[in-house]
Design goal:
The protein is α/β, with parallel strands linked by helices. The chain is about 25% helix and about 25% strand. It has 5 helices and 8 strands, in the order αβαββαβαβββαβ.
């Protein structure tokens, strides 16, 4: 799904969101250069895979945190992890680098990619994510995001990161 289709999907589900269009951003440093509301809701998204390229994972963490993939691996019982390639990102989620988002799971036809959300967002009223394009940011309730992904059938876990 592209941005328009993604937003239409959220509208059909009755999910409320706030939307801001902006220049393309490819990382958190570039995002910091743009004046956007709700900085406490900023999220960083990582699409990772195991060393055998058998299992892929989507992680969404609070924007200023760094993820230690070795600690994540140990805590979640996975094989050794690394960032997935741009080709894998395109093939699995239909996304390009800089546009990684939990809503990319709308493009996961098999609904097998697990989604891990940083437990930080359990105590937040909003989470900021892209609607499958890095020129737009939406803010929605974290519980609404989890509900959307659970309805897709992807495994969902809320974990400390």
């Amino acid at each position: 799904m592209d941005t328009t289709e993604t937003l239409h999907y959220l509208d059909q589900l009755g999910i409320a969101y706030e939307l801001v269009e902006h220049p393309a951003v490819f990382n958190m440093a570039e995002l910091a250069q743009i004046s956007l509301p709700h900085p406490e809701a900023d999220a960083k998204n990582l699409f990772i895979r195991d060393d055998k390229k058998r299992n892929y994972y989507l992680l969404t963490i609070q924007g200023t945190k760094r993820v230690n993939l070795k600690q994540f691996q140990q805590a979640n019982g996975t094989r050794r992890l690394t960032l997935a390639s741009p080709a894998d990102l395109q093939a699995k989620l239909g996304l390009s680098p800089g546009s990684v988002t939990p809503l990319g799971l709308l493009n996961d036809a098999s609904h097998e990619i697990p989604f891990y959300l940083d437990s930080y967002f359990q105590d937040q009223t909003l989470i900021a994510i892209h609607p499958n394009d890095n020129t737009t940011t939406i803010w929605l309730k974290p519980l609404d995001l989890l509900d959307v992904i659970q309805k897709l059938g992807n495994p969902v876990k809320v974990v400390p990161m």
